[in-house]
């Protein structure tokens, strides 16, 4: 297939729409089910690049959950703890395969943002992963291959209209990439930067102890940022992104947004949230929405009389600010990556409140000394990579 006609572009009024290869060669994808849209394909191609690089950097299978051309979550295939299985709603699935674990982590880190996602897998979609996908609200999936039974499971989703794409893993894009804006053609060299341990050699803080697990998390953070709309900041722990702040004009707003998502990820593991007495039959999306409200400032939207009765068998106690802060203080050894330098130490202070111990950023600000001082005051380890990772 050399070109594919699409229903419309970013919006229904943007017609005609298609994808094609300028050199006349075949497209690197095959549509196995459904009909992809313009934004679906942007998510699919960006997501595929992300998981391919995660696999190369860590040696483990990887998955990402994309929404509107930025990842909502990304992870490698490490085993889940019992608590993680509960907060990702997979505790009824038994032992997961590495690919299933990667997707459960990628989808579960920020379930609110992942609602209606496009999934990318670094390796063959197995039956375990397909069963997980079948239970979630999702627009589509891209992978290099599918087990026959897994493909049949996915083909039943959305009444047979679920988008399933198979990508040629050997496809290599041209060294130059182009796009048009306002009728003007932009051309640049593809960002072929390889992210590996060599980027983390320049440790500028007093604390220089950087264990391999933190190096892996740094690689996950930076690879995720490489395909996240800038400005962007990513918090990572235990092989998965736990908070991504994308597309903010101010870096401190990126840090706050990503930090609040990382906080919510950890708060979901608290006894107060795990013990919420949901009624039988409450849908996953409704549970996710209720938990998000319960943990936030608008908790009375689910705890007010006349409202809690629709969700819970009994009225939950308020999760107080003091209780939340005490629980969050237990989140440690988090890694943070930034796609460009931190101009002020306030980013570090905010990151510290979300358990950040390790930082990877380009460096090069006129206030680098202030940022280093902030890290030293909290005994953090910070690397200057010397590499910016803007993505637009």
Main β-sheet description: 6 strands, mixed
Tally of structural domains: 3
The CATH architecture designation of the largest domain is 3-Layer(aba) Sandwich
Q: Compute the gyration radius: what is it?
A: 21 Å
CATH topology of the largest domain: Cytidine Deaminase, domain 2
User: Strand-residue fraction?
Assistant: 15-25%
Q: CATH superfamily of the largest domain, please?
A: AICAR transformylase, duplication domain
SSE arrangement, N to C: EEEHEEHHHEHEHEEEHEEHHHHHEHEHE
Broad CATH class of the largest domain: Alpha Beta
Mean pLDDT comes to 96
The strand count comes to 15
Low-confidence stretches: none
Number of helices: 14
- Characterize the overall form: globular
Quaternary structure annotation:
single chain
Give a verbal description of the structure:
This protein is α/β, with parallel strands linked by helices. It folds into three domains: 3-172, AICAR transformylase, duplication domain (Cytidine Deaminase, domain 2, 3-Layer(aba) Sandwich), CATH 3.40.140; 177-267 and 328-384, AICAR transformylase, duplication domain (Cytidine Deaminase, domain 2), CATH 3.40.140.20; 271-318, Helix Hairpins. 34% of the residues lie in helices and 21% in strands. It is built from 14 helices and 15 strands. A hairpin with a 2-residue loop joins strand 11 (232-237) and strand 12. The chain is globular. It starts with a strand and ends in an 8-residue tail after the last strand. The model has no long low-confidence stretch (mean pLDDT 96).
